[in-house]
Amino acid sequence: MRTRYRPRTFVLEIVMVALAVAFLFPVYALVTLAFKDPEQIANKPLSLPDPPSVGSFGTAWESASLSSALLNSTLITVASVLALIVLGSLAAYFLARKAGRLSYSLYILFLVGIILPFQLGMIPLYQLVNDLGLLGTYQGMILFYTGIQLPFTVFLYTGFIRSLPADYTNAALIDGASHLQAFVHVIFPLLRPITGTVLILNAVHIWNDFFTPLLYLGGSGRETVPVRVFAFVNEYTSDYGLVAAGLVLAALPILLVFLVLQRYVIRGFSSGLKG
Amino acid sequence: MTAVITPPAAKPQTPAKRAGRRSGIAPPWLFAAPALVVYALVMLYPSIVGAGSAFTDWSGVGEQRSFVGLANFQQLIHDDQALGAIRNTLLLTAAIVVVQTGLGLLLALGVHTTIKSRMILRVIFFAPMVVSPVMVAFLWKYVYNPAPDAGLNAALNAVGLGALRQDWLGNPSIAIWSVAFTVIWQCAGYSMVIFLAGLEGVPQELHESAMVDGAGTAARFRHITWPLLAPALTINVMLSTVGGLTLFTQIIAMTNGGPGYATDTLSTVLYKQAFVFGKFGYSTAVALVLALFVAAVSFIQLAYLRSRETAA
Description:
The complex is a heterodimer. By secondary structure, chain A is mostly helical. Chain A has a domain at 66-235: MetI-like fold, CATH 1.10.3720. Chain A has 15 helices and no strands. Chain A has helices at residues 7-23, 25-34, 38-43, 55-63, 66-97, 101-115, 119-131, 138-162, 167-174, 179-190, 192-208, 211-217, 225-235, 240-260, 262-271. The two termini of chain A are 33 Å apart. In chain B, helix 4 packs antiparallel against helix 11. The interface between A and B is large, with 116 and 110 residues.
């Protein structure tokens, strides 16, 4: 059944490709829009740009300050994901290996964080970040993402470590290594598959997050890409070509990364629990 | 099948290894301390304060607040905007769960075949998932352009369906479905890959022996594929439910809750109450209601996952 290509398979192929074409219509509309001048936008809304004009891209890149937004997003995403991997794997190693009621309760306490919607603590947290003087800073955002994404990260790591035999570390400890040395040299390298999942899910989430950076970074000059795009689109609302060019440019980096790493990204999403 | 159950295990576990695991020399508490501190600071403490201030008249400025009991909740059940938001939240969630899961299943079945384009189609259908919801919302805001000669309206006209042209986001009775469709467009590929992981766990031999016994495609789907897809289905339903209940970004970017209150949800109402009207106490009461919805759904989800973990 899965090995032969029959007439029925061909019909299915046609149907699926047609579906994909319809699915991509919005993308086609946006990309062609970005390459059109105002006169083409008004007169030929759906046709291919003829001739294509690339002027909107430069203007959009400048007006939305995309280069500094990309830098801000990269900094915040990389630092948060690193913190999550370090703190999450260390905590999970303890939770997975320490027997007893107390460590189990702590594990459950972390799991509660997966259930808690962040809206519940949103306002007190905003106050806290303000009181700590971290509004409008990278550190505030990194602290936020690390805390918010830790429960899920700890959950993924703990389950994975539990399925590893303890023999390796015991051997290292008997040879005189400290717990930290055993973790760094023996355990952490074994965690590579789950570290990949943790990295992909957290990076995509943090890179694309909008609401908290809007609250914490708005007007600070350290806005991430989605926040800049939001402000940009609202400012140039009626200049369709410019808005389209800005959206294309802003979405391009993560789409390129996705195309290069598609297998890992799709696997990470289908094996993880939330996006 | 196990591919959709998180967290993925490193390798199959034998009972002997499971017993030996706990005999490992445990690392010190210090390993968990940094994570616990950050988690407590960012999530536990604010959530507790938030739940507490739902029973106060806190304005959000300064420390002044007095206990008002259930007044915020009484206000909520008499607040047309909040009640409408609850209704919208449930409608949106229902539409997203049903259509996204159904579409995800059809896409998965379609690309889990021998068609030549199967790999590229997976990438295409999944791609919107990695783009920020803000940008997807703005993309669709253009598609939903009310002008008769732009976006979706132009496309409808071009294929002879000009009669269907609409003010997609401006018509109060359509706007909410337009928003729902945007979310479904973005997330159907996610449902698809979760179903695909489930489909890859269905043993091919089962299909082959059923074919020998003369079972048709429909019968094999009903009696083999569908029951084995149960875990993937559960995960998809749970994920899209929580996603629908907490939907915020797309609404703020596309309609800001309008026209009128037609697309306000619990998330947009609590945001506006807090940051537009400065009623933090009331806002956290709305947040608490939302939290209860989400907690109920997530609790079922976790209980289900844990029961599968122990059953495996």
